[in-house]
Structure formats: structure tokens, C-alpha cells
């Protein structure tokens, strides 16, 4: 999955947790994208088996989509904490940088970061 797809999946996951109901317009508003762009992305994610769209327009992550979204969100949260702890940057900067890094980090490096955070949890 490409970076943009991961961003969409993560956003749908977070909006669903927050509101209980997600439509394409909600995703467009959250990400600041046009409705046609979101519609195109939703179509691709649907075709790839990551989400379904109900007759009333509600977006629902499939089991595979939910698994992927949780994985992306886990990387995002842990990378944000790691950057704040090790680089001493504020949450906004750490969030923005984590959003970029979460798409390219290797599983080995991420495993090491999670281990580091576990060992330094008292500092968080």
C-alpha cells in the first residue's frame, strides 16, 4: 500500500473511533483534500479490500483494513513518543515527522524503537 493509502486508512480508523461513523466528506474535511480525490482513494481502497461503503455512504474498514490501520497508527504513536523523548521536539513537530517516517521505517528499526520506549517508559 502506498503512503497516501495508509494515511486514508489511518484517518478513517481514527474518525471511526472518535465519531462512530465516517463518510467520505469527513475524511476530506479531516485531511483537507477535495471530495473527488477522496472518492477516488476510497474506490481504490474498496477495490483492494481494505474498506466497504454502505448504501448510506458510511465507510467501514474490513478486517484487513482494520489490521493495517492499527499498524499504521501504532507506528505513528510510537514514533511521535520516540521523537519527543530523544530529539526533544514538541508534539506538533514530532507528530508531523512521525507521519512521514511511519511509511518508510523498516520493521527492524521500528521494533528497536518500541524496545527503547519500553525500556524508557518512566521518562515519558
Describe the model.
By secondary structure, this protein is mainly α. Helix content is 70%, strand content 5%. The protein has 6 helices and 2 strands. The protein has helices at 3-19, 24-31, 35-47, 63-87, 91-101, 107-119, and strands spanning 51-53, 59-61. Strands 1-2 form a two-stranded antiparallel ribbon. Strand 1 and strand 2 (59-61) form a beta hairpin. Helix 1 crosses helix 2 and helix 2 (24-31) crosses helix 3 (35-47). The longest helix is centred in the middle third of the chain and has 25 residues, at 63-87. It is elongated and about 50 Å long.
Strand content: under 5%
| Principal-axes shape call | elongated
Give the strand order of the largest sheet, numbering strands 1, 2, ... along the chain. Answer: 1-2
* Biggest pleated sheet: 2 strands, antiparallel
The assembly state of the depicted protein chains is single chain
Class by alpha and beta content = mainly alpha
Q: Could you name the ranges where pLDDT drops below 50 across 5 or more consecutive residues?
A: none
- Number of helical segments? 6
The proportion of residues forming helix, as a percent range, comes to: over 70%
Order of helices and strands: HHHEEHHH
Average pLDDT, all residues: 93
Q: For the record, give the distance between the C-alpha atoms at the N and C termini, rounded to a whole number.
A: 32 Å
Radius of gyration: 16 Å
Number of strands: 2
Amino acid at each position: 500500500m502506498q503512503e497516501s493509502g495508509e494515511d486514508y486508512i489511518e484517518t478513517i480508523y481514527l474518525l471511526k473511533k472518535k465519531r462512530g461513523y465516517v463518510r467520505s466528506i469527513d475524511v476530506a474535511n479531516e485531511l483537507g483534500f477535495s471530495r473527488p480525490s477522496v472518492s477516488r482513494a476510497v474506490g481504490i481502497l474498496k477495490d483492494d479490500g481494505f474498506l466497504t461503503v454502505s448504501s448510506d455512504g458510511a465507510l467501514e474498514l474490513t478486517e484487513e483494513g482494520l489490521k493495517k490501520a492499527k499498524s499504521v497508527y501504532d507506528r505513528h504513536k510510537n514514533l511521535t513518543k520516540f521523537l519527543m523523548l530523544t530529539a526533544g521536539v514538541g508534539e506538533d513537530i514530532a507528530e508531523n515527522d512521525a507521519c512521514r517516517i511511519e511509511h518508510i521505517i523498516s520493521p527492524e528499526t521500528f521494533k528497536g524503537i518500541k524496545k527503547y520506549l519500553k525500556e524508557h517508559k518512566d521518562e515519558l
